[in-house]
Write a structure and sequence with these properties.
Radius of gyration: 41 Å
Mean pLDDT: 75
Strand content: 15-25%
Order of helices and strands: HHHEEHEEH
Shape: rod-shaped
Largest sheet: 4 strands, antiparallel
CATH architecture of the largest domain: 2-Layer Sandwich
Number of helices: 5
Strand order of the largest sheet: 1-2-4-3
CATH class of the largest domain: Alpha Beta
C-alpha cells in the first residue's frame, strides 16, 4: 500500500495519532531523563563514596596521631617520674625534702636520722630513722613510704619498742643509681610498653603527686 503526501497529512491531522505521538515523545523524553539522572546520580554517588572513604582514612590518621601523642606524652611523664624516683646522684636538700614529704603525708614525726654506712652502696643511701608516731600515723607511713616522698624507698627493717609504742626505728634505702632497662641490649632496640606497664606507672605517678 502506497501512501501519498495528502494521505500522510490526513494521518498527522488525525487527533488520535497526534495523541499517540505525544505520548511516545513524552515516554522517550522520560526515558532519556531517567538515563541522564542515573548517570549523574551514579557519578555523584561515586564521588560521595570517595570523599567518605578519604574522610574515614583522615579520621583514622587523626585518631592514630592523637593516640601516639598520648602515648609519647605518657612516656615523657614516666621518664620524668623515674628521674625523680631514682636520680643520678644523691643530694642533701632532695633527701631532706623527701623526708619532709613523708612526714607531711603520714603524720608521723622523724625525730632524727643517721646514715648506715654498712648498708650504703654506690646505688643507694641507707638511713636509720627514729620515728615518733601513733598506730595510725605509723600505718600511714608504711603505706606511703615507697613512692609518696617522690623517691623510691625500700624498708630494710622496723623495730618497735614494746614499752614505748609511739617510737619506732626504721631502716630505709634511698636509691640513686640511673634507671636502666636491663633487658635492652642496645640503644637501638625497640622497647614495648604494655598496657599493664602503663597502669603501674600511672599508679606510681598518682601516688607521687598525692597530697
Amino acid at each position: 500500500m502506497e501512501f501519498k503526501l495528502p494521505d500522510i497529512k490526513k494521518i498527522i491531522r488525525n487527533s488520535h495519532f497526534t495523541g499517540t505521538l505525544t505520548i511516545v515523545l513524552i515516554d522517550l523524553a522520560l526515558l532519556l531523563l531517567v538515563a541522564w539522572l542515573t548517570f549523574v546520580l551514579q557519578d555523584t554517588f561515586q564521588v560521595f563514596q570517595q570523599e567518605k572513604t578519604q574522610k574515614d582514612l583522615l579520621s583514622q590518621d587523626v585518631a592514630l596521631l592523637e593516640n601516639n601523642k598520648r602515648i609519647l606524652g605518657s612516656i615523657e611523664i614516666y621518664n620524668d617520674a623515674l628521674d625523680k624516683l631514682i636520680p643520678d646522684n644523691e643530694g642533701y636538700f632532695e633527701l631532706i625534702s623527701a623526708l619532709d614529704q613523708l612526714e607531711e603525708k603520714s603524720g608521723a614525726h622523724i625525730n632524727s636520722y643517721s646514715i648506715d654506712l654498712e648498708q650504703t652502696t654506690q646505688e643507694k643511701l641507707s638511713l636509720d630513722l627514729e620515728l615518733a608516731s601513733n598506730t595510725s600515723s605509723l600505718e600511714s607511713f608504711l603505706s606511703n613510704y615507697r613512692y609518696g616522698s617522690g623517691r623510691l624507698i625500700t624498708i630494710e627493717q622496723i623495730d618497735v619498742n614494746p614499752y614505748e609504742s609511739q617510737n619506732a626505728t626504721i631502716g630505709i634505702h634511698f636509691f640513686h643509681k640511673p634507671f636502666v632497662l636491663e633487658q635492652v641490649e642496645s640503644a637501638n632496640e625497640d622497647v614495648t610498653i604494655s598496657e599493664d606497664d602503663r597502669n603501674v606507672m600511672d599508679e606510681i605517678v598518682q601516688e607521687m603527686s598525692a597530697k
